[in-house]
Amino acid sequence: MSFDTLNLHEALIRAVKTAGYTAPTEVQTLAIPPAMAGRDLMVSSNTGSGKTASFVLPALTRVLASRSQPRPPRGVMQGPRILVLTPTRELAMQVAKATMDYGRFVPGLSVATVVGGVPYGLQLKQLRGPLDILIATPGRLIDHLESGKAVLGNIEMLVLDEADRMLDMGFIDPIHHIAAATPKARQTVMYSATFGGHVGRLAEDLLRTPQRIEVSSQTEAHADIEQRLHWADDFQHKNALLDHILTERSVEQALVFTSTQRDADWLAERLGEMGHSVAALHGGMPQGRRNRVLQGLRSKHLRVLVATDVAARGLDVPSISHVINFGLPMKEEDYVHRIGRTGRAGRAGLAVTLAERRDSGMIHRIQRYTTQRIAPTTIVGLEPKRVEPKPAAPMGQRPAGKSFGPRPSGRPAFKPAGKTFSKPGARPR
Ligand code: AMP
User: In testing the pocket of ligand 1, which one of 51, 90, 344, 347 has its CB within 8 Å of the most ligand atoms?
Assistant: First the structure.
């Protein structure tokens, strides 16, 4: 299969060739033709599968078609033709960047991002001007809709990227509200890891006779990623394992995940004191600083990034050779998203999970979710002294012994110095 057979406009074929792509990926092959035919789609495809281009190229096809239509009179605010909703600011930025890349030969292409955590001024200016594609997080777009600054009456295509994640984040009402502000005759394309439960109901509400496209399971998608597990006796041991791994020469760039914002700050500070070029990235930081950190990672000024789940979602930096789970995710799906940050664009990646005994319940759930065993590994001189936890009991049973219980919501027994970002009991990510 080649891009030439997809019936794409010459400007788009030239752009994908400039990006160095020789052939469409599976999701692109399956989703681009029906999307270009105007069909509603429900697509499950994994991170790193090339899914962004699978909706951006059909969206740009619409923009190119509009170039032959008469322009609206000057001063008439028309609003964009395409709206992409994403759960996080980072993913919105990523989609915007991909759109600019794939749309580099589209004459006069105008793309705006409307995300929270940044000043309103530039967004208002962009919303007023002629606009082809709007990429937004639901919360901030609702603000602009309610103040009458965003016009969605011209939307031809609505894309919901990572719909499951948006619903997990509580965006169900904003999504309904936003969709209701767009024309009924629009095309709607929804991407989600699953289409069960509330995601399925949302699809029923928003999509018309959709075509279902499923591309490879969680398991197959990670063929380029080697997964390893290190059991740690205690918190100090876990730190020693991390320090050892980060000094390995094979680490080009490492993404270290923590469970909380506070841990991310604390760990970044500790690694910085050890001489690593490192920064933290999490949802509690102002957007400007988050952008600078991502820039530092892309330009390789940073070798280590310590991040929470929210901040790292959608991150696409092919030179990330290692993902290290220092704190386990809250949900097993997040493990899959985390490790998908390495092994990108056909490169090999290593995903290392550092677990204490109390994490064994989550390790079991992750293995069941991915249907893969994560092989326990040891480092000479840093072997665990305690016996490796036995495999947990089958679904529905709770194994005996208190060390196998679910992970407690509190932090392990260490007290980081410095600021606290969380409200008591809250677990910001
Ligand atoms: P995505 O799943 O959209 O986040 O894309 C994952 C990575 O694959 C990005 O780095 C894209 O630049 C890259 N990519 C997308 N389409 C192709 C393709 N047809 N051939 C090679 N790489 C691609």
Answer: 344
